Amino acid sequence: MAAIACSSASCTIPMTIPSSSCSMPFAFAQIKGSVCLVQLTDPSGPSSPLMFSDVRIFRHEFITIFRYSHCASVHPSDFQVLEVLDERFAAYEEEKETVSLAREVMARMQRLSSIGGVAASNRHVATNSPGRGTRIQSARTSRVARIH
Predict the structure, then answer these.
(1) Where is the composition biased (Polar residues) (predicted)?
(2) For the residues 28-56, what does the mean pLDDT come to?
(3) What are 81-135's pLDDT values in tens digits?
(4) Alpha helices in the chain (DSSP H)
């Protein structure tokens, strides 16, 4: 079971989370293709591959700060823990419902997001034109790049 910091609110199934969440570790997770900050409520994970994971969704608020958004249950096929964080790098303020991450941790999260998001968001298609170069088409631009 987990709590998640995510910039999008794609998971919206209501659920309950234990009141004492300050001792639960944080991790990076991928939920429905988005890399999120996750607070694990059950580090052992679901007992069955068919069980939903309970999560707390946080949204990115400012630079290294995330704020609680809502609770949800996520199907295991939509949820994957990528990296468990050392407790020294994430500070949770329970009364304000905010999480502050170390800058190094934010940089790792941004790298994970760009690796996972590039394939899904850019959708580049390359076709070869003999003697002319490679034509690269994307949703944003179309350009011809010379091959030397």
Answers:
(1) 124-141
(2) 77
(3) 888 888 899 999 999 999 999 999 999 888 888 876 544 444 333 333 444 444 4
(4) 103-122
Alpha carbon 75 to its chain's center: 15
Nearest to 3 by CA among 101, 97, 106: 97
Q: Are 122 and 138 in contact (CB under 8 A)?
A: yes
Are the C-beta atoms of residues 65 and 99 closer than 8 Å to each other?
A: yes
pLDDT at site 34: 86
- The half-sphere exposure of 89 on its side-chain side, counting CA atoms within 13 A, is 18
Which of 104-143 are b and which e, b meaning 16 or more Cβ less than 10 Å from the residue's Cβ?
Answer: ebbebbeebbeeeeeeeeeeeeeeeeeeeeeeeeeeeeee
pLDDT digits (tens, 9 = 90+) for 58-76: 788 999 999 988 777 888 8
Yes or no: say if 42 and 90 are a contact pair by the CB < 8 Å rule: no
Query: What are the φ and ψ backbone dihedral angles of 111, each rounded to 5 degrees?
Result: -65, -45
